[in-house]
Amino acid sequence: MLVLRALGLGDLLAGVPALRGVRRAFARDEVVLALPPALGEAALATGAVDSVLPAEAPGRGVPSLRHWTGPPPDIAVDLHGNGPESRDALAALEPCRLLAYAEPDHGLVRPPVWRPDEHERERWCRFLGAYGIPADPDDVRLPPPAAPSPAPGAVVVHPGAESAARRWPAERYAVVVRRLRAAGHRVVLTGGPAEDALVLDVAERADLPPRDMLLGGLPFGALSSLVARAALVVSGDTGLAHLAVAHGTPSVTLFGPVSPRLWGPPRAEHHIALWKPGPPGDPHGDVPDPQLLRIGTEEVVTAALSLLPSHRTTAQPPKGDDIRGPSVRS
């Protein structure tokens, strides 16, 4: 069985409920996941796949799978998108059966229909359900990592994101770091492999000591342990926010071009999503989204302190339309 989901870390983790549905339904088969090679360790850590097939394309495109060396897959599953490109990449391997939004089986009583307003986790579980494969969109948790954390009990602040549209300004993150440290919390900064300059910028503005700057992009095992044993994760709408959900770590996530109704955490008191309602933007844009910029530092600090143990009785999240916690309000 070959599954295609060659996207980013957040996409992989949002797809875990669907992958686990596949795993349970085909327990005796080998499940191979096609995804970028940098995510191989993360994919195997889910326990939902047996092996990985390195596959990636620029700009979140559909990669070729022609380097597949095995026999035609018994079943190929397109969890990558809803267009013909991802379907065709799998069809080129001549699988015995192909499951895809772009070309559902004609024998299905209710073929799956793509809904643009549906949450990503629910979308793929419903897709599998149309094929008689049950999957639970809340089945997001990862096993506790075995490796020790590089900063146990710290507040993890991650200012980076794949696109500028989802990156809150560095100077605002610096204010949040300063305020949390002034409240007595250790704060560490993380970034991706190409985000050292951003981490250093925030650290300099916040007078953060070098020991609390985790540069170079942590390998997944270390990053997973850091998040799993953190007191709190503060980030934009990116992979680290999904990793916090996967480990049940309290989180404050800043949303801009995309509503948390589509990519946000499950409803839980320990996850807060900040968002200013408005028209959807471009999540891959090259400038910060206007709705993201409407989120102020005081809102982020207040939300963060409300989730930290020593402040839960005194700090309350701001009221209004910009908090997504145990319930969604807009």
UniProtKB/TrEMBL annotation:
Gene Ontology cellular component annotations, sorted alphabetically: cytosol
Disordered: annotated span: 307-330
UniProtKB keywords: Glycosyltransferase, Transferase
Keyword Transferase belongs to the record: yes
One Gene Ontology biological process: lipopolysaccharide core region biosynthetic process
InterPro entries tied to this protein: Glyco_trans_9, LPS_LOS_Heptosyltrfase
The keyword Cell wall biogenesis/degradation is assigned to this record: no
Molecular function as annotated in GO: ADP-heptose-lipopolysaccharide heptosyltransferase activity
PANTHER family: LIPOPOLYSACCHARIDE 1,2-N-ACETYLGLUCOSAMINETRANSFERASE-RELATED, TETRAACYLDISACCHARIDE 4'-KINASE-RELATED
Protein known as: Glycosyl transferase
